[in-house]
Structure of NADPH-dependent FMN reductase:
Amino acid sequence: MKVVAIVGSIRKESYNLKIAKNIQARYADKFDLEILDLTPLPMYNQDIEMDPPEAVINFKAKVKEADAILWITPEYNATIPGVLGNAIDWLSRVDKVMNGKPSIIMGSSMGMLGSVKAQMHLRDILFAIGLNSPVLPGNEVYIGAVHEKIDALGQLTDEATIAFLDGVIANFLEWMKKF
Ligand code: FNR
């Protein structure tokens, strides 16, 4: 199974990116996770959506080929970061490559609430845009105080979080059999 990770932060030391990398390594025998780079994506512009730049074509192709999308996001100003909204804008138009694609949502923040508002909004958005992109029910992953759970090498060290992720990924793999 091929899954693409769409991370709502483009900073190099992003904790959410580090979570994605930990998932990629820990469950490598269960699915192939490719972490997509949102950095080269231009701002969505309807004027160029029919003939978009190479970066958009490549990004959409990766999502189209995937069996599922793993969204991992921080919270910016009580909602999803602009880079994530921008990525969804590109994905939701023209050939609508997210159509029918199953999703799983996770996120982290340095605060205690683990990007809960961003994730709630993302669930809402994926439902509301009508692309028939089902989100794994339940299994909400709010990783708070993330800076205390990842070491200097980027390794997720918090045992409770690791055990919780093991359960969520097992549920995700079981749920994916339906598609
Ligand atoms: C934040 N941060 C933040 N955190 C939170 O829990 N709720 C919020 O509304 C916000 N708002 C916010 C706005 C902006 C512009 C920034 C830059 C940051 C903190 C944020 O969650 C924290 O910086 C994360 O570590 C960012 O995720 P990455 O880049 O580490 O993945």
About this structure: The CA atoms of residues 19 and 48 lie 33 Å apart.
